[in-house]
Amino acid sequence: MILYMLLLLLTALLAYPMGSISTLRVASRYVFRRNLMKLGGTDSLWFSNFRRLYKIPGILKLLAVELVKDLIPILFGALLLGFKGHADVGRAFAAFCLMMGRLWPMFNSFRGCRGSLPLIVCCFALSPTAGLLSLLTVALVTWFSRYPSLGAAVGGVVSVFAVLIAVDGRITTLLGVGFCLMVVIRNIPGLRRIAAHEEERIDLQLDISYKFDEKF
Questions:
Q1: Cα dihedral 166, 169, 170, 176 sign
Q2: C-beta contacts of 191-195 below 8 A and 24+ residues apart
Q3: Would the N or C end of the chain have less CB density within 10 A of its end CB?
Q4: Which 8-state DSSP code applies to residue 187?
Q5: What's the pLDDT tens digit per position in 161-200?
Q6: Within a domain: residue 210?
Q7: Are 200 and 149 in contact (CB under 8 A)?
Q8: Measured between alpha carbons, how far apart are the two ends of the chain, in Å?
Q9: Going by C-beta distance under 8 Å and a sequence separation of 6 or more, which residues neighbour residue 71?
Q10: How far out from the chain centre does Cα 179 lie?
Q11: Would you state the pLDDT for residue 205?
């Protein structure tokens, strides 16, 4: 039991800090060689500016950075707990800790992302079925509503049921449901802004040059 708890502790000590590291800062320094944080204050403006400058290849590069960064602690947790025959618990626990870091990062005053992409990655870590349902829900709701908060929240709710249906093992299921609910909770303020018509939609216009007053 002591060894088991030690392995969980080591997993948490890697997964939470890794989740707390900003993907944008990593991509800025090692991939794009440019401070992506300066592309706009709001999510809508930032995404529009980024897409204008780097187009689809740039988006794919950014997603690749995020995917690799999130997979490292999950694979590490599976490897450690695998020595005790519980690789599935290791993946689930690492995903849970990773999600905490993504939503409430220690390196950014506990103000993190909405959790859409880590939700998809973490669900895939538990079950391909849960991951696919999470991906489809987040993508479709975000695309048609243009509200990232709504896509993440609805994705979190659907993912809860997907985990309950597709994942075996009581501990693994509880951890999966836990990180899905965290995404829902994190996006409650955004849902309130949507209800009050105060949330900004993602701008997917092809030509957004009129928004630029300065060079980045």
A1: negative
A2: 191/149, 191/150, 191/153, 193/149, 194/147, 194/149, 194/150
A3: N
A4: T
A5: 999 999 999 999 999 999 999 999 999 999 999 999 988 8
A6: no
A7: no
A8: 54
A9: 121, 125
A10: 11
A11: 58
Residue with tokens 């849960």: 130
Which residue's structure tokens are 């005790």? 84
Asked whether residue 158 is domain-assigned, the answer is: yes
**Of 136, 140, 123, 133, residue with least CA distance to 179:** 123
Q: Do residues 154 and 188 touch, judged by C-beta distance below 8 A?
A: no
Q: List the structure tokens of 72.
A: 């490292």
**What is each CA distance from 121 to 5, 88, 138, 196, in whole angstroms?**
25, 15, 12, 31
150: domain range? Answer: 2-203
Task: Judge whether 95 lies within some domain.
Answer: yes
Residue 31: inside a domain, yes or no?
A: yes
Asked whether the beta carbons of 150 and 140 are under 8 A apart, the reply is: no
Please count the structural domains in the chain: 1
